[in-house]
Fold this protein.
Amino acid sequence: MHDSSGTPSGPARHEADSDLPAPHRLALAYAPAAARPAWTALLALDLRLAALLREAREPLLAQIRLAWWRDRLNEESASWPIGEPVLAALASWRGRHRLLVDLVNGWEQLLGDAPLPAERLAAMAHGRATAIAALAEVLGEGDQVRERAMHAGRLWALSDLAAHLNHPAEIADVQALLAGEPSSMPLLPRSLRPLPVMHALVTRHGGRAILVAMRLGLFGR
């Protein structure tokens, strides 16, 4: 359940308190140890926002809770409530957690009745891609890598969105957006290697998905 401020409490905190899902853990295994805390924080926040939309009984409640997260990300970490595990994990972003506000804004684009306009779906993917580019910055990567991370993040976000949508019109719109993207992941440094692994796991199925993900994790392509 959640309290009136939108702060997750009680049983609803299980996603942040428990381990990440198996595909995320597999992807993180290919990141350098120094990069894993920032990656874990980003993925935990992304999962929390997804669950928030999934569990909200009506859009207004979801907007209130998204606003709570947006406010926290716009604050100094010293102002954060103690005991919120996702916020605690975001300490690994070393004060640059404001870069994740676009992730909240992206998830907010999914509020509303299906079919959502293609522009909203594209904006959602953009929010997640911006978060990946922000992660590259936090991990000390340069401008060129951050640009590649943005492109790779958009490709992953659209593919993940396509895999989870149900409305035919929305699926068609996302497929059209994907058609305008590069067909393969750009080469990324080891610090960002979890991204192509996650992309492989969402776009392929069965044993081949694991084999491709392992190859990408080890070699980057």
User: Anything to note?
Assistant: The radius of gyration is 17 Å.
